[in-house]
Amino acid sequence: MTDELTQLQPRRKSRPIRVGDVQVGGDAPVVVQTMTNTDTADAQATLRQIHELAELGAEIVRVAVPDKAAAGALPDIVRQTPVPLIADIHYDHRLAHAAIEAGIHGLRLNPGNIRDPDKVRGVVKAAKERAISIRIGVNEGSLPPLPPLAEGEMPPPKPKRMVDAALWEIGILTDMGFEDIKISLKAFDVPTMVTAYREIAEMVPYPLHLGVTEAGTPKAGSVRSAIGIGLLLAEGIGDTIRVSLAADPHEELPVAWDILKTLNLRQRGPTIVACPTCGRIEIDLIPLANQVEAYFQKLGKPITVAVMGCVVNGPGEARDADIGIAGGKGKGAIFRKGEVVRVVPEDQFMPALVEEGHKVIAEKWGDMPPSQPLAADNLGDIISLTPVEGSRPGRTSRR
Ligand code: SF4
User: Fold this and answer.
1) Nearest-CA neighbor of 183 among 164, 191, 175, 192?
2) Who lines ligand 1 at CB under 6 A?
3) The pTM of the whole model exceeds 0.85
4) What's the pLDDT tens digit per position in 342-386?
């Protein structure tokens, strides 16, 4: 979009920590992370997935370490991982020790289920010796038990219980002089997690890992995550994010990146501006928009491409886009930064956008010469990704 991106609130100042070679907090950009769903004991399958997730933009990956077999696979996984890894530990502090021995880059401990302070201290001591950071990962679904309530006394509200659980463990760590801490306070309920994060953001200097837990299926879960994580990021709160969907983890990363792109916090891959279609539309817009997104996603550059259904509003509404098309009556006006550069027939919409896109990429990044033609078979691959639906899908396939 424009070169000068509008920013919302300034980021909350947090104490920087490191997860391997990735800084979280301080002046680092908001870091994207996700979690594998393979059996960690299967080192090859887990490594394969970590590589795939890294390709999609995961900067840190967390792996579950539920038992000795999983811990036993960690040395191999850590040796070959392309990004820093965090071991997710619940209940058994011995698994944290095994992960530290394996060279893990970070730990996640749940204060709701490792309750013995001496066991926590043992893990902290070992982490400190290896300069491994620890996330105190509070989850609304596994809070520590409440102390007995006096007659008539109401339990504290859920956000306060979450904050108190984090503060309990923060106290153990800081009493030992350990401050390489980040904190998460995840809940399914967005107002609960937003309130909890807002409260702790005022109380401690540590970086915050944002997430809406068990957010749901891809469609509903993406909306829920975008609102929960996005509300906080818009207030300047949050140093790393994880989108949790009931889906293949590969699906989480585009959502995470879209949240950051939407708030002008980070750019990765294309931004597609596409009109919602209306009664003026005269081109097959929705499949074209999907083809454009699939093609430029593969190129991986942060280019903005507009796909507009008519010339009435198209170039004007998308004037900040690097390139775009405004279609109508079998022809399309190709524009760059709102200026029409040529008019092409409908069968040339995609090739023309690809050609102009390559020119912009070559001008901005210099690594893709404009003379490089789009191979016909390559274009065929891209176009076949998105079947054309109906005779006037601009209307019939609206979703
Ligand atoms: Fe309708 Fe044209 Fe706007 Fe698309 S760009 S929504 S077709 S007026």
Assistant:
1) 164
2) 275-278, 280-281, 308-310, 312-314
3) yes
4) 999 999 999 999 999 999 999 988 865 443 444 433 433 333 332
